[in-house]
Structure formats: C-alpha cells, structure tokens
C-alpha cells in the first residue's frame, strides 16, 4: 500500500512518461503542424533538452485537440488506477 505522497509522486512520474511517449510517437514534424509553441523565450521560460522535447505548446488543429484529449485521458486513467488500486 502506498502513501498519498508516493501516489502523487508516481502519478507525476507516469504523466511525464506519457508525455514523452506521446512526443516520441507523434514526432517533431507533426508536433510543429498540430501545436504552436510560444516564440518569446526569457531566462524564466527556457527549458532544457527534456523540457523542449515534451513541450507541445497549444493545439491549433483538430489533430492537436484530439492528441491533447488523448494525453489528458491517459493521464487521468493512470492516476485513477494509481489512486484506487495501489
């Protein structure tokens, strides 16, 4: 049985894994077509390699909205499973 803190940590970790798998599966070309990233970058909004790889931006096409919905649904299902069954 996991404590609540462990469940939250597990959910955040699994959410990052889901983002990474989605970014890898979609590819950079489709991400550029389906999502729009913020162009202005300051010292506070800069990201490292992993942050740039999983940064989708906001959706601008139907495919982007469907992808966003699928990612959010996958994260919700995984967090529900973690919170109820573990």
Write down the overall mean pLDDT: 89
Shape: globular
- Share in helix: 55-70%
Whole-angstrom Rg = 15 Å
Count every beta strand, where a strand is a DSSP E run of 2 or more residues.
Answer: 2
Number of H- or I-type helical stretches: 4
The description of the largest β-sheet is: 2 strands, antiparallel
Structural class: mainly alpha
Q: Give the terminus-to-terminus CA distance.
A: 6 Å
Q: Order of helices and strands, N to C? A: HHEHEH
Strand order of the largest sheet: 1-2
Low-pLDDT stretches: none
The amount of beta strand, in percent, is: under 5%
Summed up, the domain count is 1
Note the topology.
Blueprint: H1 4-26, H2 28-34, E1 35-36, H3 49-54, E2 58-59, H4 62-85
Antiparallel strand pairs: 1-2
Helix pairs in contact: 1-4
Question: How would you summarize what this structure contains?
Answer:
This protein has 86 residues and is mainly alpha-helical. It has helices at 4-26, 28-34, 49-54, 62-85; strands at 35-36, 58-59.
Outline the structure in words.
- The chain is mostly helical.
- The chain has one domain (4-85).
- 70% of the residues lie in helices and 5% in strands.
- The protein contains four helices and two strands; from the N terminus they run H-H-E-H-E-H.
- The chain has a two-stranded antiparallel sheet.
- Helix 1 (4-26) runs antiparallel to helix 4.
- The radius of gyration is 15 Å and the shape is globular.
- The relative contact order is 0.20.
- The mean pLDDT is 89.
């Amino acid at each position: 049985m996991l404590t609540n803190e462990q469940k939250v940590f597990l959910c955040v970790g699994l959410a990052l894994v889901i983002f990474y798998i989605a970014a890898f599966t979609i590819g950079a070309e489709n991400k550029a077509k389906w999502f729009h990233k913020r162009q202005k970058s300051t010292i506070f909004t800069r990201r490292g390699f992993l942050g740039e790889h999983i940064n989708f931006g906001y959706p601008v096409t139907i495919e982007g909205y469907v992808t966003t919905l699928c990612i959010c649904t996958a994260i919700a299902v995984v967090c529900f499973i973690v919170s109820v069954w573990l």
